[in-house]
């Protein structure tokens, strides 16, 4: 459990770094007359992802979940791949990457990096991580509940983001 707790705390630390990058990028976007969309779902997203990390630590202890190497190692690989994809997205979007939906008028959607292959690759990373991180230590209930909750949240988020991007694309 010690190594798993360290992994979850590492993911939490990575989230803090994301928030620092996002805060900087938010200030840049708003200074360039960026418009924020979907403020209402943002606190829900923060709460959901924070609760995921807490439940990742609680379920293995409270429900006496075993460490199953045959499950843990593939799930750990997926978690690491999700992190790599997320940071590829952050790098590709540069100052436009954010945890919020902020569109700067007159800018075109990024079509480099992972965005050459998918419209929302960052959300692929999120879906994989939400499912895989709990399963590194057999927290199947956390994986199931948070995957379902995240699917609902992502439906709202994608609708919001796609609408914002569609309205903002320059002629």
Query: Can you summarize the main beta sheet?
Result: 2 strands, antiparallel
Arrangement of strands in the largest sheet: 1-2
Determine the fraction of residues in helical runs and give it as a percent range. over 70%
Second rung of CATH, namely the architecture: Up-down Bundle
Q: Count of DSSP helices? A: 5
Please identify the structural class as seen in this structure.
Answer: mainly alpha
Rounded mean pLDDT score: 95
The CATH topology turns out to be Four Helix Bundle (Hemerythrin (Met), subunit A)
CATH class: Mainly Alpha
Tally of separate domains: 1
Beta strand %: under 5%
User: Shape, please?
Assistant: elongated
Distance between the termini: 54 Å
Number of strands: 2
Give the gist of this structure.
Helices cover 70% and strands 4% of the residues.
Characteristic terms for this protein:
2 strands; mainly alpha; Four Helix Bundle (Hemerythrin (Met), subunit A); two-stranded antiparallel ribbon; single chain; 171 residues
Give an overview of the whole structure.
With 171 residues, the protein is mainly alpha-helical. It has a single domain (2-168), classed as Four Helix Bundle (Hemerythrin (Met), subunit A). The protein is 70% helix and 4% strand. The chain is built from five helices and two strands. It has a two-stranded antiparallel sheet with strand order 1-2. The longest helix has 30 residues, at 2-31.
């Amino acid at each position: 459990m010690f190594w798993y707790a360290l992994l979850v705390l590492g993911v939490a630390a990575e989230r803090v770094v994301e928030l620092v990058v996002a805060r900087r990028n938010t200030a840049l976007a708003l200074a360039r007359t960026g418009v924020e969309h979907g403020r209402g779902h943002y606190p829900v997203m923060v709460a959901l992802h924070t609760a995921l990390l807490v439940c990742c630590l609680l379920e293995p202890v409270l429900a006496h979940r075993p460490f199953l190497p045959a499950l843990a190692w593939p799930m750990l690989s997926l978690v690491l791949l999700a992190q790599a994809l997320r940071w590829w997205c952050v790098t590709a979007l540069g100052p436009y990457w954010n945890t919020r939906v902020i569109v700067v008028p007159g800018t075109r959607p990024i079509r480099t990096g992972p965005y050459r292959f998918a419209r929302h690759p960052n959300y692929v990373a999120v879906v994989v991580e939400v499912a895989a991180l709990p399963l590194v230590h057999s927290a199947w209930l956390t994986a199931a509940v948070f995957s379902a909750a995240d699917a609902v949240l992502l439906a709202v988020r994608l609708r919001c983001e796609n609408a914002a991007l569609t309205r903002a694309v320059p002629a």
